[in-house]
Amino acid sequence: MKKDTLQISYLQPYNGTKKSKLFFYDGSPDLISVFKPGKNSSKKRLFITDGTTASLKEMQDFSNCFDDGCCGSDYLLVLGSGEAYKNIESVLTIAKYALENNLSRNDLFIAIGGGVICDITAFAASIYKRGIEVHLVPTTLLAMTDAAIGGKTGCDLNNTKNPIGTFYPATEIYYWPSFVQSLNDNQYTSGLAAAFRLSLIANKELYEIFKNQSEQIKNRDQNVINQIINACITTKAEIIKKDLTEKNERVLLNYANTFAYAFESIAGTGVVAHGQAIAWGIARQVELSFKKEYCKEAFKSEIFSILEDYGWETSPIPSEVSGGGITERFIKTIMNKKSDTIKLLMLKDIQNASMEDISVSDLESVLK
Length: 368
Fold this sequence. Notes:
Elements: E1 2-12, E2 16-25, H1 31-35, E3 45-50, H2 51-54, H3 57-63, E4 70-71, E5 74-79, H4 88-100, E6 108-113, H5 115-127, E7 133-138, H6 141-147, E8 155-157, E9 160-164, E10 172-175, H7 185-202, H8 204-212, H9 214-218, H10 222-240, H11 257-267, H12 274-291, H13 297-309, H14 326-335, E11 341-349, E12 352-359, H15 360-365
Parallel strand pairs: 2-10, 3-5, 3-6, 6-7, 7-10
Antiparallel strand pairs: 1-2, 4-5, 8-9, 11-12
Helix pairs in contact: 4-5, 5-6, 6-7, 6-10, 7-8, 7-10, 7-12, 11-12, 11-14, 12-13
């Protein structure tokens, strides 16, 4: 049963205003009732998912509607699962499949899955026939709280996170928060980390939920999960609707990504979950804020205590990375042939950060 709807308007300087309509549903996911595969429609619809999502019991009835991937004028494409498939080959697979089935610019792509599927499907939509409409059905907590909101699309290239992509918001996003109950622990805590990151930079009330309701969160209390999802959506939407293409305010949402992307790159594609890398990045960036005297020790200690309570790593070098010269490898990846300094957000307190110049020696101080 549909519970609520929300509309987000994005200011696009190159293409006017674009709107995303969000639909929220109670209870177990019922994709057949919402999407009615095989219905007579003027649009062809290409549903894209991955093997992990397709195997969920919540997806079985829907998947069974498609005989050899086809149901009337609807099509279902199942891709490989995980970060290893977030590449240009997967994007091209979507485009080729659409072309082979004669989808036009007036037809529709619908992604059903986590952040990887949402990102690559929206990227394929943004370049297929110079732009086809895309809808998203996020099935992981990370996708619900982060990837599906805001129109960032893209894929990995040469073991680098998201160097190619576009800004292309979905016109409709469908939420079944109960999908979260089907996630494994790694997927669940990955999504929590992204939500916690948003609480630090933009939502004190959400931070208090993480701080004071950890047992309910770790036990996957659905009411608390719903609160987290709703808080992330509204908070991120307020930022992005002012700055879709990341010229000003949206930079806040990249907090901890510099360290996180380096972690993922050095560990190897798919070795660590994105949220796990974000959590470690938060620890490094808070440690840096303390060492640079932007925040007090009590603040740093509280953040570290929360990170450790949820099982996230806070050590200077994550256990998933091995080999010699680890500190140097991290610094080389982070600096990426830039100048001797980079700009990073330094937290002074919850919802209080400033962009500061950080040197190589500063980075060394938190990576040993």
